[in-house]
Amino acid sequence: MHETLKKLYRDHANFYKLMDLLEAELNTLESQGGAASELMKELIAYTRNYSDSIHHPIEDHLYQLILSRTDDGKEDMERLLGHHQILMQMTRELDQALTSGVPSAGFVTEGRGYLSQQREHMKFEEEKAFPLLRNHLGAVDFEYASSALPADEDPLLDPLMKEEYPNLFSALNKS
Ligand SMILES: [Fe+2]
Ligand SMILES: [Fe+2]
User: Fold this and answer.
1) How far apart, in whole angstroms, are the C-alpha atoms of residue 5 and residue 69?
2) Which domains can be identified in the chain, with CATH numbers?
3) Cα radius of gyration (the chain)
4) How far does residue 116's CA lie from ligand 1's centre (Å)?
5) Ligand nearest to the CA of 12
6) Phi-psi region of 33 (alpha: psi -120 to 50; beta: other; left: phi over 0)
7) d(CA 37, ligand 2 centre) in Å
8) Using CA atoms, how far apart are residues 58 and 4, in angstroms rounded to an integer?
9) Using an 8 Å Cβ cutoff, are 125 and 59 in contact?
10) What is the distance in A from the centroid of ligand 1 to the CA of 106?
């Protein structure tokens, strides 16, 4: 398997962990009320900065390549491209809600909706899209994207994460 595809799988494994953390934070917010935790803010900010700004655009590029080469999975690819736009919009809205003070009454519900969309999205990609990437794309196609994805075995444990997202870093290192 090409390194880029391995990194996309690795990212998913990390995003599943992040979504589990977000779920726990939403449960706490629901039972205790009050302001959103710094951890939740960092989590959403990280998702915006990494998942929405790097991971999804790389997938978009690869899905467009598939669309240009084969009719295999055409509907699935188009669905995923649209899904990226929806997810990015949802992350933006959650981020804005979190930076504007105490979250509204509907925030927990929105957050849970977001969680399930993210999980379903990744599962769908792993089932439908990644096998197509593997079958239809070659090393040169994957090369385009490879340098943009962090090389580290686990970018969530990068020391830079500790500086930028201290609460997220320590929560991940506890689990
Ligand atoms: Fe995606
Ligand atoms: Fe993905």
Assistant:
1) 18
2) 3-174 (1.20.120.520)
3) 17
4) 14
5) 2
6) left
7) 26
8) 10
9) yes
10) 25
d(CA 58, CA 51): 10
Q: What pLDDT is recorded for position 121? A: 97
Length of the chain measured in residues: 175
Is the whole model's pTM more than 0.85, yes or no? Answer: yes
Is 85 in a helix, a strand, or coil?
Answer: helix
Tokens in use for 20? Answer: 């589990």
pLDDT digit string (tens) for the chain, length 175 residues:
888 899 899 999 999 999 999 999 999 999 998 888 999 999 999 998 888 888 898 999 999 999 999 999 999 999 999 999 999 999 999 999 988 877 787 899 999 999 999 999 999 999 999 999 999 999 988 887 776 666 665 667 677 788 889 999 889 877 5
* Amino acid letter, 8: L
